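During data preparation, a discrete fold description was generated, as reproduced here:
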Amino acid sequence: MFGRLVAVPRPVARIVLLTAFAAGLYVVLSNIRYHWDWGVVWAYREIYLYGLLTTMAVSAGAMALGLVLGVSAGLASVSRGAWLPELAALYVGAFRGTPLLVQVLIFYFCVGVVVRLDSPYVIGAVTLAFFSGAYISEMVRAGIESVDSGQWEAAAGTGLTHAQTLRHVILPQALRRMVPPVTGQFVSLIKDSSLLSIIAVRELTKAAEVVNAATYRTFETYLPLAALYLLLTWPLSRLTRRLERGIHPHMADGRRR
């Protein structure tokens, strides 16, 4: 019996599980003594659409800047000397060791005032970029350090400098190992953007809060919010899985062959 279950193709298993989940969710929601009114979602569709576009724009900007910061800090952490590695360690430690919510408040109420920047959208994107960049930095560092030390020695034996070895020998090998976790970090960044509602960025979560405040229809307000976040993150999650399978072909079907 167990062998037959294991032999079921994954697409079939996925469809069965999704159907069972949908059925279970329907049973739970239908048993709640609540008058559903999904018309409020349609009535406020423009607010949701604006929130969706804002989340996409802020997340895209944060991804781009965070990637630059993360790669720069990652390379600095494996560089020679003392200043750059220590500076990178300080940056990573500060942003990984404090909650993102606290960072958002500090950037908005302190840093933004000092640099005379009053746009919550820009400040929110920059905060997300610095936060995600700290995690990307560690992924870059780990990817570089995962390359066998013999590669460094062999490159040095051919007369390559440290920078040349890093650029032409180490990074091409490490890049394939970095891409999947970095893509996964982008998924987390999209979800983390929900915290920007606290500084009045009208992204998805803030849009749902506005609709809920106007209609008091909590279920109808926040269930579409979850669906929209899933719509944004699902493609990236699938891309991460595909990249992981590309690096480890023996895991292509989710099991070791």
Q: What stands out?
A: The radius of gyration is 23 Å. DSSP finds eleven helices and no strands in the chain.
